[in-house]
């Protein structure tokens, strides 16, 4: 983090503003909507998987985002915000499972609780967390495991995300391992459980009324995990987890618990609804299976936390919303990322994935960040073109051109395409 932003946060704490927390209704305030479909959907060469036709909706601290559902709140980031490597906080997507989300947190009484199988249980205040522990920053992509679920064939239930169920930010906070060391994790601990402030009648009732996610104590992803209080050098928007959230670089967003308030050392595997029933993937290569196998009832599954986010890349512009002038070069731009080691290569195809050339990578902002890329494309002819992009990560994983299928609608990372029309010379 920049020293400046940490200093200003400390000043903000010192000013007493911390006790006031944020106000403004964040819940069930379904505000101004624009029913105008997005250009990229209606354009001559539509790619409905970016954006779709959902209405724009405004929530506190947010720019108009695409409404997926409002109970719980799910808002998708429109495509143009992915033109920059860091997704603005006000445009960052939002995903909640439950209805009762906080619209203010009083930092004078709020405490993060470290409990369970620990030597010295701790209740730590926000300002102590900021002042008494070393601040660390990491650029990391937060992606919902169901991002792009709307592509699944056959369709699966769940939020029908286009590609905007993801975002990249610079997260600043305290290393989880350092916090754990300060309370002393006792032997016999197998998992750490994380829980936030939101509540509500969950799916299936039975103990699902608070989202709780757990990771193995020995999971190397926890070495990189932060308890974050800044997002792009500002306090977290309420809808993204104010005052703190867990950040687990490389893992899907479901583990990035918002409004984090309880960390528990467990002596046995967590069997709560959010681990044992929800967010499970087939225990197969790439989490792939078939509808028939899923229906058979014999499919063995594991929590999605057993895997890291597969490598993906996206074309952001051009978006197909207007004809491209013929005879002129086209600057194609996008982003790529992987939860499993940095992106090493991004390739561009002008012929629907038949032949590939290497694109130029942008600045390296760390292994978990969006990596921007660009390519100057000179269309050889007028008419319809389908361009494509694919990325390769440091482990040698390359995006497949075959779609994945599983009943949860998780792990989509097929090669992306964009149809375009190059205008005939006049
Ligand atoms: N407290 C809490 N944290 C949560 C969730 C939730 O419902 N409650 N949803 C998770 C899921 S499934 C995702 S994809 C991410 C989304 O993060 P965002 O809303 O900040 O974009 O938050 C995760 N953290
Ligand atoms: Mo998610």
> Which outline best applies?
globular
**How many structural units, i.e. domains?**
2
Strand arrangement in the largest pleated sheet: 1-2-3-4-5
Number of strands: 25
Total DSSP helices: 7
What is the CA-based Rg, rounded?
A: 22 Å
Largest sheet: 5 strands, antiparallel
How much of the sequence lies in strands comes to 25-35%
The residue-averaged pLDDT reads 90
Bound molecules: ligand MTE, molybdenum atom
In short:
With 426 residues, the protein is mainly β.
Written account of the structure:
The protein has 426 residues and is mainly beta. It has 2 domains: 1-307, Oxidoreductase, molybdopterin-binding domain (Sulfite Oxidase, Chain A, domain 2, Alpha-Beta Complex); 312-422, Immunoglobulin-like (Sandwich), CATH 2.60.40. The chain is 11% helix and 29% strand. It contains 7 helices and 25 strands. The protein has helices spanning 3-14, 17-20, 39-42, 126-132, 176-183, 273-276, 291-296; strands spanning 33-34, 56-57, 65-70, 73-76, 94-95, 112-116, 122-124, 136-143, 166-175, 191-195, 212-216, 226-231, 234-235, 245-247, 262-266, 280-282, 301-303, 312-317, 330-337, 343-349, 357-358, 360-361, 371-377, 383-393, 416-422. It has a 5-stranded antiparallel sheet, with no helix packed on it. A 5-stranded mixed sheet has the order 7-6-15-10-11. The longest helix has 12 residues, at 3-14. It is globular. The termini are far apart. The model is unreliable at 16-46 (pLDDT under 50). It binds ligand MTE and molybdenum atom. Ligand MTE is lined by residues 92-98, 142, 144, 196, 198, 211, 240-241, 253-254, 256-259.
């Amino acid at each position: 983090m920049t020293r400046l932003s940490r200093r200003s946060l400390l000043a903000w704490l010192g000013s007493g503003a911390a006790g006031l927390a944020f106000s403004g209704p964040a819940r069930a305030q379904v505000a101004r909507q624009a029913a105008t479909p997005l250009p990229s959907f209606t354009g001559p060469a539509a790619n409905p998987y970016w954006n779709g036709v959902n209405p724009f909706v405004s929530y506190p601290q947010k720019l108009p985002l695409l409404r997926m559902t409002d109970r719980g709140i799910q808002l998708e980031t429109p495509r143009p915000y992915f033109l920059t490597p860091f997704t603005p906080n006000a445009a960052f997507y939002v995903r909640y499972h439950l209805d009762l989300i906080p619209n203010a947190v009083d930092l004078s009484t709020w405490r993060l609780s470290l409990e369970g199988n620990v030597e010295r249980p701790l209740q730590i205040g926000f300002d102590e967390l900021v002042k008494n522990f070393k601040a660390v920053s990491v650029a990391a992509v937060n992606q919902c495991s169901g991002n792009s679920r709307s592509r699944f064939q056959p369709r699966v239930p769940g939020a029908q995300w286009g590609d905007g169920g993801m975002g990249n930010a610079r997260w600043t906070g305290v290393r989880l391992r350092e916090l754990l060391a300060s309370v002393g994790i006792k032997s016999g601990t197998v998992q750490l459980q994380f829980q936030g402030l939101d509540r509500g009648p969950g799916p299936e009732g039975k103990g699902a009324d608070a989202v709780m996610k757990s990771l193995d104590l020995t999971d190397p992803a926890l070495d990189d995990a932060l308890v974050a209080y800044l997002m792009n050098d500002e306090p977290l928007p309420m809808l993204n987890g104010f005052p703190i959230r867990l950040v687990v670089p490389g893992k899907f967003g479901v583990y990035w618990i918002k409004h984090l308030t309880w960390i528990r050392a467990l002596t046995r595997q967590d069997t709560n609804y959010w681990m044992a029933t929800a967010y499970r993937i087939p225990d197969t290569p790439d989490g792939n299976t078939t509808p028939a196998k899923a229906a058979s009832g014999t499919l063995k599954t594991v929590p999605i936390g057993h895997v890291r986010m597969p490598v993906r890349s996206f074309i952001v512009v051009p978006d197909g919303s207007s004809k491209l002038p013929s005879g002129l070069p086209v600057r194609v731009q996008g982003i790529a990322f992987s939860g499993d080691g940095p992106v090493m290569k991004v390739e561009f195809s002008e012929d629907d994935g038949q032949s590939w050339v290497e694109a130029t990578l942008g600045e390296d902002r760390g292994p978990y960040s969006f990596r921007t890329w660009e390519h100057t494309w000179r269309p050889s002819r007028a008419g319809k073109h389908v361009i494509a992009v694919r990325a390769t990560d440091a482990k040698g994983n390359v995006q497949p051109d075959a779609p994945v299928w599983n009943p949860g609608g998780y792990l989509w990372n097929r090669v992306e395409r964009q149809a375009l029309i190059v205008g005939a010379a006049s």
